[in-house]
Structure formats: structure tokens, C-alpha cells
Design goal:
This protein is of the alpha/beta class. The chain has 2 domains: 50-131; 139-288 and 335-406, Rossmann fold (3-Layer(aba) Sandwich). It has helices at 6-13, 15-23, 26-40, 139-143, 198-203, 234-246, 259-270, 289-299, 304-315, 320-323, 361-369, 387-390, 392-406, and strands spanning 50-56, 64-68, 79-83, 88-99, 110-120, 126-131, 148-154, 157-164, 179-184, 207-211, 251-257, 277-283, 347-352, 374-379. The protein has an 8-stranded mixed beta sheet, with helices on both faces. A 6-stranded antiparallel barrel has the order 1-2-5-4-3-6. Helix 2 (15-23) crosses helix 9, helix 3 crosses helix 9 and helix 8 (289-299) packs across helix 9. The longest helix has 15 residues, at 26-40. 43% of the residues are buried.
């Protein structure tokens, strides 16, 4: 099977020529370096991107919210809405009504959505921030699952971590399972992204460890404060695996979203704890960073040679200081379509056909190359890592079915 389209293979073969041509152009070099730095630089600011126009229902118990129309406000499924600069939070359900606002003087187009609940603050008209994570808080406050806040030691320092012990079997004192899960959120997200997976794991009797990792807002930074795109973060996941083993796990299931999926796969390839991994669940995974970054360069309307030069900078020891990374980012080492033969544990990969950030094609190629170990479940119309949001019953059913086959 051809792992990549011919055009992509030809483009990769032309990288060296593009780099030479661009090196002679100061503007091209600066633009490529800017693109590469953005890829590995954590974003600390999360600006408001939604507008609440009206709130319906009793004071203190709203039933619906009217939002200015946007692609996010119209998205199917359930989502979170941060209020008052992050001080408040509401959970929103499906779209109830859409008003196109096309008439002259009729005001902006609006979307009315169900309000499932307000977790903190007050839902009032004003700016807000859309969030695909849906839940906010911690496992206890968001889901009613007992948990402990612990610190897991990694080479960068102490990582804030949620520990959710497995429920006892049959009401007795012994845990229901000696398999625990380690959950890893995606780039720019927080541990809250992982909350959606905890109920189904708990029902299966599986305990969970949910760590922050280096360069998260709540975790220690790396020396240069840059992402390794999974190439450095796997050490933090290894520390979480060791914590789960110390707490009584015999084996672990790894669950990762987006860059968290890339991180999980690096642990499989590079950590001595990989022999304790029973199975892997990936959601919207980055399986080949070069493919993803090619796509991102096109989205940002960068000329293809400049995008390619940016990728070369990420991997170059010479350009390391320009990009700001501690070590060159080995993108080839993170191409799991090319490395498909090395996979040795069962993988469930959930991915939407319209993922706008991490295209689905590498998932399809990997599933075709390794049907013996990869179960690919494709969603429609969910976007990036919002498969659960759009169809939580299907997401949980597929995860439960897969884990029951491999626990």
C-alpha cells in the first residue's frame, strides 16, 4: 500500500532545493522561522471568541442562551462556554434555533442553544470563550468521581495530576481491575479535555491518572519553554505510568488526544515502560507531523516552499536556536504511517472525516497498513477532537467495546 500520495512524496524530495532557494531570501527565512516557532510555542492567552446576546429562563437557572452566530455556535453536539474571562463556566447542549438576521436593521445572525448547566459564575450577556472540552473543574466537581490531587515527579519537576482510583469490585475492598489508564490531553488544551473519558473508564472498573505535562500553564516549563511535539513530553507520560504502577496497576491503557496521541506513541517507541501498555486509544491523533504541518501551512496561506523550510528548521541542529527548541525535532521519528510495522499493541483510533487541524488521511493509511492491530472508527462532521461532543454515546460505546476486548 502506498503510505502517502505521490505529490507529497515528490514534495518531500524537493525539500533540499526549496531550503537552498529560501536561504537566500531573508524575508522567506524569517517567515519560515515564524511558522516553525508558532508550532512549538505554547499559547498562554485564550481570548474570548463568542458573544452572549441574551439568556432565557429563570434567574440563576437559565434554560437557553442566544449567541452571535459563528461556526462554533452552530456546531452540533455539546460544548463548554467560559464566562467572565474564565471565572465562570456553562455547559451548552444542542442548537434550538437559528435566526439568520438577514433583514435590514434586524440585528446580527444568532444561534440559540440549550443550557445544560452553569458550573461557576453567572451566565449573562457579554463576551465568552468557546471550549470543546465541555466539562470544567476536576473529576470530583465535574463528574462526581472521587479523586486525589497528586504531584508526579518528572525530569522537569512536579506535574499536577488527577488520580481516580478504580471502583471496588462488587462493593468489596479489592479494586475492580488492575489495569489503569493514563490520559494525555492535546496541544494547547488542559486536563479538562480528558474528563469526558473518565465515566466510561470508571464503569469498566479502570482507574485513571491524568497528568499535566511540561509547558502547560499549571506545570513546570521545559528549559526553553517549547513543545517537543511529543518528542519530549513522553517523559512526563512515562512518569504518570510509573505512578499508576506504584498505585497498584499491573498494566496500563494509554489514551491521547491530538498531540497527546503523538506523545503516547513516542512512549511506546522510547520508554522502558512500554511493555506494561495493554492497549491504546487515540482521538484525532497526530500520526505524521509533516503531513499535519503541511496542512497547517496551507491553512495559513504560506507558500509551500516556506512551509517546507519551516519544517526543515524544526529538524535542523543549525536552526535550533532560531526556532527556540532544546533539541532538533525529529519529525521522521514521529511518522507512524512510515513506522506502522513497529506497532505491537492494539490501537483504537477515533477520527472525524472533516478534522480541520489534523487531517484524517494518515489515520486511514495506518488502519489500511495494520488492520491486525488498528481499529479505526471514523466520525462525520465532528471536527478536531470533538467526536465525543457530537456523539458521546457512540464514542463511549466504541471505547468500551475495544477495552472489553483487550482488558
Amino acid at each position: 500500500m502506498s503510505r502517502h500520495p505521490l505529490a507529497l512524496a515528490v514534495a518531500r524530495g524537493a525539500v533540499a532545493g526549496a531550503v537552498v532557494a529560501l536561504a537566500a531570501t531573508a524575508a522567506g527565512s524569517a517567515l519560515a522561522a515564524h511558522f516553525a516557532r508558532r508550532v512549538v510555542t505554547p499559547s498562554r492567552s485564550r481570548p474570548d471568541d463568542a458573544t452572549v446576546l441574551a439568556v432565557h429562563g429563570p434567574a440563576g437557572s437559565p434554560t437557553a442562551v442566544v449567541l452571535r452566530e459563528s461556526p462554533e455556535a452552530l456546531a452540533p453536539g455539546r460544548y463548554g462556554l467560559w464566562l467572565a474571562g474564565g471565572a465562570g463556566h456553562a455547559r451548552l447542549g444542542p442548537v434550538l434555533e437559528r435566526d439568520g438576521g438577514t433583514g435590514r436593521g434586524s440585528g446580527p445572525a444568532t444561534v440559540t442553544r440549550e443550557v445544560v448547566g452553569v458550573d461557576a459564575g453567572e451566565l449573562v450577556p457579554g463576551p465568552a470563550r468557546w471550549d470543546g472540552a465541555y466539562f470544567a473543574g476536576d473529576p470530583s466537581s465535574a463528574l462526581g468521581l472521587a479523586h486525589a490531587d497528586v504531584l508526579v515527579r518528572s525530569d522537569v519537576g512536579d506535574l499536577p495530576t488527577w488520580e481516580v482510583p478504580p471502583p471496588p469490585a462488587g462493593g468489596g475492598g479489592a479494586p475492580a481491575s488492575d489495569v489503569w489508564a493514563v490520559l494525555v490531553h492535546g496541544r494547547g488544551a488542559t486536563r479538562a479535555e480528558c474528563l469526558r473519558a473518565l465515566p466510561v473508564l470508571h464503569r469498566l472498573g479502570v482507574g485513571a491518572v491524568v497528568p499535566a505535562y511540561r509547558n502547560d500553564a499549571e506545570a513546570p516549563p521545559s528549559r526553553r519553554g517549547r513543545y517537543g511535539l511529543g518528542g519530549t513530553e513522553w517523559r512526563d507520560v512515562e512518569a504518570a505510568v510509573l505512578h499508576a504502577l506504584a498505585r497498584g496497576a499491573r498494566e496500563v491503557v494509554l489514551v491521547g488526544w491530538s498531540m497527546g496521541a503523538a506523545t503516547v506513541l513516542q512512549l511506546l517507541a522510547r520508554s522502558w515502560t512500554a511493555d506494561r501498555v495493554r492497549a491504546v486509544v487515540l482521538d484525532g491523533p497526530v500520526l505524521d507531523w509533516r503531513h499535519v504541518l503541511d496542512h497547517q501551512a496551507r491553512l495559513n496561506r504560506l507558500p509551500a516552499p516556506i512551509g517546507r523550510y519551516g519544517l526543515a528548521m524544526l529538524s535542523s541542529p543549525v536552526a535550533r536556536a532560531v526556532v527556540g527548541v532544546e533539541d532538533p525535532v525529529d519529525l521522521g521519528r514521529m511518522d507512524w504511517v512510515a513506522r506502522a510495522a513497529e506497532l505491537h499493541v492494539p490501537l483504537l483510533v477515533l477520527h472525524s472525516d472533516d478534522d480541520e487541524y489534523v487531517p484524517v488521511e494518515p489515520t486511514r493509511w495506518l488502519a489500511a497498513a495494520r488492520p491486525d492491530v488498528v481499529r479505526h472508527v471514523e466520525f462525520t462532521g465532528a471536527g478536531h477532537c470533538r467526536e465525543w461532543n457530537v456523539d458521546p454515546d457512540r464514542w463511549e460505546r466504541e471505547v468500551a467495546r475495544f477495552l472489553l476486548d483487550h482488558l
